[in-house]
Amino acid sequence: MTSTLAENLKTTDQAAQSQSSQHAVGDTAAPCPLKQRHALEARVIGEDDKPLADIGVELRKSATEKLRAKTDANGAVRYDGLQAGGYQLSLYELDQEAWELIKQEPLTDALAKSSGDAGWQDFSPPSREKIDHLVIEGECVTKLADRYGFFPDTVWDWPDNAQLKQSRKDMNVLAPEDTLVIPARRDKEIPAQTGNRYHLKRKGIPAKLRVRFLIAGEPRDNVPYMVSITTLDAQTVADQQGMTDAKGFVSVFVPPNASTATVVLDKGKWQQTYEFNLGYIDPIDTVRGVQGRLRDLGYAIENEDGILDENTQAAIQLFQLDHQLKVTGEIDQATRDKLKEKFLS
Amino acid sequence: MLTIRNAQMEVLSAQQRQKFVDAMCEFLRLQFKQELQGISQTSLQAKVSAALNSASRYGLRSHRDCCRYLNLAVTYGWEFEQLPENAWMREYLTDPNAGNPSQRLQRLISQCIYQMEVKENNRQMREAFGTVENLDADEEEQYDELEEDELLIANDWDKPNDLGQTP
Q1: Which structural domain, as residue segments, surrounds residue B28?
Q2: Rounded mean pLDDT of B161-166?
Q3: What is the three-class DSSP state of A53?
């Protein structure tokens, strides 16, 4: 696909908008021109202030009369064919703490007008049951909070997860077979009037990924980088570029279902490429967790298999030597603490 | 009083439909000059007619929605949503929680344009950045350099900065 194709589709789609939205193909009678209706729009953005697609939005007229839609690639939803007046608007798949109204604005006269009739339906509400989720490899609170419609902190701070939080410390480092309690989802609606556009924010999504680069102990600051993200469902994600900050950090937003991040650092002959599996680091109190951190810190780990073999012990010894720790090749508390400090989680 | 019988309505409807097919052929030829250059008028009419039947199955009946759907058909292929790689498009057109047929189509078109733009922007950015592909030949050598440089990589998910030391 090329920009020419995108431009073509945009142009032809604009041309198609000149066609009637009221006349059906084959119709022999024209619709009543006197039936004036109204519209209402919503826009949803994420933590990075960019549009969020595929968010379920519900407009409710009464207990049994609802309209549901999903945001498009521009984070937008539009409801046509409404009678002038007030309704209830919600991101019905999300918990009350996972979204908020950030502003509202009147639509232009042209956008506020509509025709036809909205097709109200009686949708059953989404499940609100508490779930005990058994964690599998690659899952973390951010990913699971997105999947179940929560703000990540709501799940992590939920009293039922206190013990897990105490043992794992970091919400994005869970171990397979950990149990994360997903609370019962709580509804929230906001009043909405026809003729307005409501700007809503999905909280906590996307998450921020930070990767730090050092060379000979010094931050690789002010170095150009480009980051490409792949996701579990192979969606198309925009590459991001920038310059490392004064402390050598690359900082980018990543969608919650991101599986890998490829960082291309620098240009020309010094360019290097690094690939990271996201959400796949095990807790520091496991051998695999230690192996994963050592590997990402540049120590030679042949297999991340959870076995404290000769290769792993050699890497631990080298790490201990580098950090003036007692060289034992064993995973003692001082080694774990230093490893955690260096890996930053 | 003028009375129009059902049979007459059907004839009128068929005439209206044929008129619309012809208008759409003209519209598409104007919008997709190159793409439709090699297609005869009869063939194009048949394809448009079949595509309108498909559109109807997704509840797309207005002139505008049919026209927008036809744009997709020429861009992605006449039976685009039947292709395995475009299964997601079919889902967009049938998702019961994604609004009425017009809203579903709007969401699909928006996503198509977004994907095209992102792919193109990514291509341009990678090219400007020196393309990852260009690295492949030197990859082994560069990883050797990496070890010599004693490069430290740390990562986290939104943690405060913490200046580390070289391993």
Answers
A1: 10-130
A2: 32
A3: coil
Owner of token pair 């945001």: A71
Any chain B CB within 8 A of the CB of A124? no
Asked, for residue A250, whether it belongs to a domain, the answer is yes
pLDDT at B157: 44
Hey, is the C-beta of B65 within 8 angstroms of any chain A C-beta? Answer: yes
**What is the phi/psi pair of residue B164, to 5°?**
-100, -175
Domain extent, residue A176, equals: 131-182
**CA separation (Å) from A216 to A70, A143, A245, B153?**
49, 34, 17, 11
Q: Quick check: is B62 in a domain?
A: yes
Judged by a CB distance cut-off of 8 A, whether residue B48 touches chain A is no
The pLDDT of residue A294 is 86
Number of structural domains (chain B) is 1
Co-location of A193 and A228 in the same domain: no
Ramachandran region of residue A169, left (φ > 0), alpha (ψ -120 to 50) or beta?
left
Distance from CA of B74 to the nearest CA of A (A): 10
B151 located within any domain: no
Number of domains in chain A: 4
A249 and A299 both lie in a single domain? no
| Structure-model confidence comparison of residues B146 and A87, the more confident one | A87
Q: Examine the domain organization and report whether A213 and A265 are in the same domain.
A: yes
Size (chain B), residues? 167
Q: Note whether A110 and A138 are same-domain residues.
A: no
B58-89, pLDDT tens digit by residue? Answer: 999 888 999 999 999 999 999 899 999 999 99
Residue B11: its pLDDT value, please?
A: 66
pLDDT at position A305 over 70: yes
The model's pLDDT over B51-65, given as tens digits with 9 standing for 90+, comes to 999 999 999 988 899
Provide mean pLDDT across the span A30-36. Answer: 64
Please check the confidence at residue A146 and state whether its pLDDT lies above 90: yes
List the single range of A17-21, A73-77, A93-97, B90-94 with lowest mean pLDDT: A17-21
Q: Are residues A157 and A250 in the same domain?
A: no
Q: What is the pLDDT of residue A256?
A: 84
Q: Is residue B166 part of a domain?
A: no
Residues of B in contact with A234 (CB under 8 A): none
Contact B135 A208 (CB under 8 A): no
Q: Considering only CA atoms, which of A15, A131, A252 is closest in space to residue B155?
A: A252
Whether residues A341 and A192 share a domain: the answer is no
Is residue B141 assigned to a domain? no
Band (pLDDT 50/70/90 cuts) for residue B4 is low
CATH number for position A222: 2.60.40.10
In a domain, A116, yes or no: yes
Report CB contact under 8 Å: B67, A19.
yes
CB contact set of A90 (below 8 Å; sequence gap of 6+): A57, A58, A60, A187, A188, A189, A190
- Residue B119 forms contact with A (CB below 8 Å): yes
A194/A228 same-domain check: no
Closest by Cα among A339, A326, A323, A329 to A290: A339
